[in-house]
Amino acid sequence: MMLSPTIPRRTILGIVFVSIVWPGVMSAQSGTWALTNARIETVSKGVIEKGTIIIRAGLIVAVGADVVVPADARVLDLSKRTVSPGLIDLTSTAGLLTTPAANAGGRGGAATPAPTLGGPSFSGFDADRKVSEELHVSPSDARSARESGVTVALVAPSRGALRGLSALIPMKDSADGSDALRSPVAEHFGFSGGGGGFGGGGGYPGTIMGVIAYQRQALYDARRHGQIADRWAASPRGLTRPENDPKLAALVPVVRGMLPLFYDANVENEIRRAVKLNKEFDGVKMTIVGATEGWQALDALAGHSVVVSLNFPNPTSTTGWSYRDAMRHAESDSAAADSAAKKLIEGNAAAINKAGIKFALASGGTGAAAFLANARKAVAAGLPADVALAAMTIRAAELAGLGEALGSIEVGKIANLVVTEGGGILADSAKVRTVFVDGDRFEVAVAPAAAPVANGARGRRGGAAAAAVEPAQVGGTWHFVVDSPQGAQALTMTVVQNGAAFSGKVSGMPTGGDLDVTNGVIAGRNVTWEVSINMNGQSLTISFNGEVTGTKISGTAALGQFGNAPFSGDKTP
Hints:
The chain is of the alpha+beta class and 573 residues long. The chain is 21% helix and 30% strand. It is built from twelve helices and 28 strands. The strands form five sheets. A nine-stranded antiparallel sheet has the order 1-27-28-21-22-23-24-25-26, covered by helices on one side. A hairpin with a 6-residue loop joins strand 8 and strand 9. Helix 3 (208-234) crosses helix 4 (246-255). The chain starts with 8 loop residues before the first helix and ends with a strand.
């Protein structure tokens, strides 16, 4: 999700993105494990309906239907449960505590650093930025990821034109660069200039064409820089020593095809421009990241590696809606047009798959809970579940360069596993119960059961009590305290519930006034909704996903590249 530089930071930090983190999760347990009687989705070798997995020293040492359990193994009976490979998110900013500078130039230009959240500033033209040197994943972030099945994340800056070098990080408590599975994984480019966007912030270059021109020149300069450096290294006598330019040096492996280039391109014209740039530098191994309008650029994506974002945009923010569909409908028909566009957006991955294009799925920066929920929506929109699971596991591992170590349940691979109850992890009814990261076991605490329904209340069948499936009661007024990086902030949300749907208002934002709560949906204790901000002609939509227990709600607020902030709240009638 791109944050516009024209929206004040404090406004962003004041928005709450609800994701429950239940207390009482057990600390990691390591050693030799035998996971028995499980339904095993290996991804690479089909499904074992009743099998055993042996874990030793963090690796899978045996898997199958007739595996002998070692005498020293701790046995975990997983009858009626499913084991899948741990999910891999290739679009994460977990653990990044700094932000790009709000007003910056490129090489040779002045840069004005912005305030940071605990570290140095970056201009958005930082090809040599090494994520592994700055990140620190908090225990709450790691726990939130695990509780939605994410065991590994590719962490990279989300703003700028030349963003820097990413690192693949396991979701272990307090993980930092020393825990990286691979670093660097790729160089990252995007369609934003200094200050992170266009039309504001004062950054150079200030247009999409300017960004492309800058990137092209940087790649040409890197090619030349590498040639000069090689020539001097081979025979330095009589030659002027090459300039020490870390930014260009970081791009030399990219132009030589030794390090992948992950290019963040979402709308159709961005995708086509990125592909065109790749053709100009045919030695560059480019992966298109985002591709939220991939269904409109299937011809351009063909033959390329693609990471498809599941951060579904509002229909009004897609070019397919704004420039092709909206003008064809009368104003009174906007709801029907919006629904049709939403189907296209959620069916994007299915369309890409149908075109025969191999891809991975990623959160797009929404957070782990929304990543899993949106993957289920993509399956409901036509993406085969086995393809979706492979795209979140083995295919993601391959694009990160670690397909031989991660992404499937095979002997010799790292024991990153997810145990679910109620079906495989992409089933709507599935709940994550246990997660293994590097062979360490993390139990996910089960939320307290809901109070029984009153006498006479009817369940779904025959009048039986159905507290477990009744929608949470969210109607009323919620009072939150968000512990943002800029201090505690109180918010109030008033909600009107209609069965499994709700709407309302959020007040207490620094800009004043109320914001609409839209697309409110309740599924058991899980709740999702959206809030949109419009300022200075810019629109930003925040998608909410959370869980309710009685009259209390607590968790973390995902603030994009600003990190996450804990919050807690109570409801009054």
